[in-house]
Design goal:
alpha+beta, seven-stranded antiparallel sheet
Length: 416
Amino acid sequence: MSQPIETHSHRAIVIGGGPAGLMAAEVLSAGGISVDVYDAMPSVGRKFLLAGKGGMNITHAEPHDAFVGRYGARADAVKPWVEAFPPAQLREWIHGLGVDTFVGTSGRVFPTDMKAAPLLRAWLHRLREAGVVFHMRHRWTGWRDGALVFDTPDGEATVETAGAATVLALGGASWARLGSDGAWVPLLAACGVDVAPLVPANCGFDADWSDHFAARHAGAPLTTVALALAGGPFRKGQFVVTATGIEGSLVYALSAGIRDRIAQDGQATVLLDLLPDHDPQRVLDEVMRPRGTRSMSSHLQSRLGIKGVKSGLLHECLGKADYADPVKLARALKALPLVLKRPRPIVEAISSAGGVRFEALDGAMLRGLPGVFVAGEMVDWEAPTGGYLLTACFGSGRAAGRAALDWLLNRACRRS
């Protein structure tokens, strides 16, 4: 039998202990609301901590319009979150937790010690001091007779929601082992909520390499290259060749377009510039330069530094006739076509796209479910890595917390 959990008046329930859920809890608590946070994992912020292992990239210092443009097709919807809690204000908030930040050479913003754990510890301490109560190992399984139902180590538990606001911040479906498993999708769909399918974002892609190429070059980095989705502009950066395809920061920056092109056409062609610091005429001149008895591979290495994985890619992706044609070879060095077949599984992705469509929301509240708000990655938006994901999660959490607080206060006013 379900065990009811004691509840209070003027209260809010936050389900999900990632950045969006914690930010919603902070806003509600600061507004004088009793807040309980429920999370399926033994501790909160697990994906946040994982993101900080390689250096906690918290936001980005680029100009506002460029920053907002990183959210692609959903830029207009995400813009209010960013404007209400812009990167500069986010940095001030972090400083208020006793954590300093700095702007790296790329414009990315990091905590001075590059770690997520001190920031999370300070934040949780402040939330607990404000009276926020955390309930761990509580996996939400839906509603029953208006009450929230949770699976817990002690069996099923229910939480009455009469008069309460509920904020759902359950994440997407990447890194399921850290809690974001997308199990909420059928629960909301059963309530008539319009949910776009969850798909991988900031992910790698399969290229179906030959066994020979994969055995020789899996794990090899490609630095100082540029990549473009066929028909689009080139972006300079770096990525890694994997046993099955490609992944890395430059690939992630283009992943939304690549993924959507594969969904539309069954595959996507990206163009790889192996020599982005050389103009096409220089490349052609060097390829055409007399090479005597040297092989073309030796010639390319001597004149243009093409060796290792770059040389391997030329052989993998060009036919023998094109490789033997100096003009076509020079063209390929500046725009080598790589055919990508499918995104890697969503559980491997850094983040996910899809989720509750903005059209299913009134502000942050679900239409048809009064008092239920959503925040974070479970909403249908996406962003590249570089601090944009976290900035939007923080901003959407604040927006949901503010909306839930206003809803509770308006209800109180109507009752008085």
